[in-house]
Amino acid sequence: MAAEALSVGSLRRRSRAGLSNRQQSMIGVAAVLVFLPLVFRMEPRNFTPFTELAIWRFLGEGVVTVLVVSIVAIVASLPMAAALALGRLSSQRPIRLACTAFVEGIRALPLLLLIFYVFLSLPRDLPAFLSRETIALTAALMVYTAAVNAETLRAGILALDPCQMEGARSLGLGHWGAMRYVVLPQVFRDTLPSLIAQFTTLVKDTSLGSVISMVELVQRGIIIFQGFRNPMETLYIVALLFFFLNFAMEQISISLRPSAAER
Amino acid sequence: MIHLADVHKWYGPLHVLAGVSLDIPRGAVTVVAGPSGAGKSTLIRCINRLETFQQGEIIVDGVSVGAPKTDVNQLRQMIGMVFQHFNLFPHLTVLQNITLAPMKVRRVTRAEAESTAFELLDRVRIPEKAQHYPSQLSGGQQQRVAIARALAMRPRVMLFDEPTSALDPEMISEVLDVMIDLARDEQMTMLCVTHEMGFARQVATEIAFMDQGAIVEKAPPEQFFADAREERTRAFLGKILRQ
Predict the structure, then answer these.
(1) Full-model pTM
(2) Three-class DSSP category at B221
C-alpha cells in the first residue's frame, strides 16, 4: 500500500519534462488567453471602456452574484448529494426507489428547464433580502449538482474496499457511524477531482440565471457590449473573470487535498 | 465464554459450515487450523455476525449471536477482531484509528481514549508511531496497530482471522509476540485462525482442525502434534510442518 501511494504521488507531481501538472495547466491557460484576442482579432481600442471604474463596479456586482450563488449552492449540494447517494444504496426499497427516481429525473432534465420550474413554483412575495431569481437559480443549481454528485459519491462508496466497512463495524460502530467516520471521508477524498469538476460547471452555469431575468456576470457583459459595441472584447473580460473564479476554487481544493501519506 | 452448537451455513448450495460445535472457556486460547476453503474464516466471522448462519447457536458471554433481538453493535463491542489485511483506516493516524471507536461508540473523552491508546501502543511496542498514517508503517506494524485498535474497546474475546498470512516472513514474529503476550492474559479468551503451528504449540489451550466445514478433531497441542487421531489431520500436519 505504501509503495502504491508513493508511485501515484510521484506520477501526480512530475511529468517527464520536469514541469508540474500545475505549471503545465498554467502554460495552457496562458496560451489560450493570448490566442483568443489574436484569433478573434480583438482591437485594443475596444478595451478602453475597461479603464473606467464604473464598468468594473458594474461587473464586480456580477462577480459577487456568481460567488454568492455558487458558494451557497456548492455548500448546500454536498450533504444533499451524500444523502441521495446513501439513499440509493439503502436496503429500504421505498427510500432506494425515491432517491433513484429523484436523481435520474433531475439529471435527465435540462438545467435550463429546472431553473424555470423552480422559479415559477416560488411564491411571488418573498422576504426582500434576496430576490426571487437568486433563490430560484441557487436552488436549481444546488439540486442539479447534488443529483450529479450523488452518482459520483455512490460510485465512490461502491468502489471503496468493503474491508473498511467491516473493520468499522467489527469495532461496534453502527452502519451510520461507519459511513460517517470511515467510509464517507475516504469517498470524498477519492472523488474530490470529479466533485470539483462539477463545481466548476456550476460556477459557469450561473450564467443561465439570465433566462429568469437575473443580471449576473454574463448578462452584465451583454449589457456593456450592447452599449459600446465591443462584444469580443467584453466577453473576453467576462471569460477572464470566470477563469479567475474557477482558478481560485481549484487552488482551494488543492489545499484541501490529503497528503500522500493519508492514502 | 464462546459456545457454538451445531452451526450450519449455506452459500446457496454450498454447505460451508456443516454442524460446527466448539466450546472455548474464559481465558482459553483456541487455534483453528485447516486447509483453505475449510470454512475457518467463515466460522470466525459468524461469531461477531459479520456473517450470518442459518442453523445452530452461537453464544458469546451469555449473549446469543444469532438472536434477532441481539444488538449487534453492543455484541461487537465485547468481541475484538483482527483481520488478515489489517483493515486500518488509511485516512486516520494510528492514534485516531485506535481512539475512533472508544470515542464514538463508548463515548469516552478524547483524553481518556488517547491515554488508553498510548498504553496499548506501548503494549504492542510501537508508541513512537502514534502520529503516523497506516501507509507509513510496515505490515507487521500495521497489524500490531490493528490489534491495539481492537483492544481499545476492552473486549472480552479476541478473534484473529489469519493475522500473519499477509505479512512478509520477517514481520510475522513481531505480531506473534504481541499475540503471545495477549494469550498469557488470563482474562482474555482468544480464537485464532492461523497456520503458525509454533504459536499454536506455545500458547494454545486447544487446537481444532477443520476440513470441509466441520471440525474434524480437536486436542491440546501436545496430543495434536504427537498423536493426531484422524488421517486428514495427520496429512495436513505433514504438509505444513514440512516447511
Answers:
(1) 0.85
(2) helix
List the grid coordinates of B193.
485462525
Residue ranges with strand state E in B118-213: 157-161, 189-193, 206-211
Strand B29-33 relative to strand B206-211, pairing: parallel
B113 vs B96: CA distance, rounded Å: 10
Q: What is the pLDDT along chain A (263 residues), one digit of tens a residue?
A: 444 444 444 445 554 556 777 788 788 888 888 888 888 888 889 998 999 999 999 999 999 999 999 999 999 999 999 999 999 999 999 999 999 999 999 999 999 999 999 999 988 777 767 788 899 999 999 999 999 999 999 999 999 999 999 999 999 999 999 999 999 999 999 998 899 999 999 999 999 999 998 999 999 999 999 999 999 999 999 999 998 998 888 888 877 777 667 76
Rg (CA), chain B: 18
Q: Is A100 on the interface with B (CB under 8 A)?
A: no
- As given in the structure block, the three cell numbers for residue B238 are 505433514
Name the one residue in this structure whose C-alpha cell is 433531475: A106
The reply to whether residue B87 touches residue A166, judged by beta carbons under 8 angstroms, is yes
Taking the Cβ of residue A170 and every Cβ of chain B, the question of whether any pair is shorter than 8 Å is answered with yes
CA–CA dist B240, B31 (Å, integer)? 15
Q: What are the E-state strand segments in chain B?
A: 2-11, 14-24, 29-33, 55-60, 63-64, 79-82, 157-161, 189-193, 206-211, 214-219
ipTM field: 0.92
Task: Record the cell numbers describing residue A217, joined without a space.
Answer: 456576470
Touching check for B103 and chain A: CB below 8 Å?
A: no
* Interface membership of B136 toward A (CB under 8 Å): yes
Interface membership of B91 toward A (CB under 8 Å): yes
- At residue A60, what is the residue type? G
Contact across the interface for A172 and B150, Cβ inside 8 Å: no
User: What kind and span of H or E run contains A109?
Assistant: none
Confirm if B29 and B160 have CB atoms less than 8 A apart: no
What is the chain A residue with the closest CA to B51?
A166
* Tens-digit pLDDT profile for residues B98-116: 999 999 999 999 999 999 9
Which of A160, A166, A169, A170 to mutate to test binding with chain B, by most B CBs within 10 Å of its CB? Answer: A170
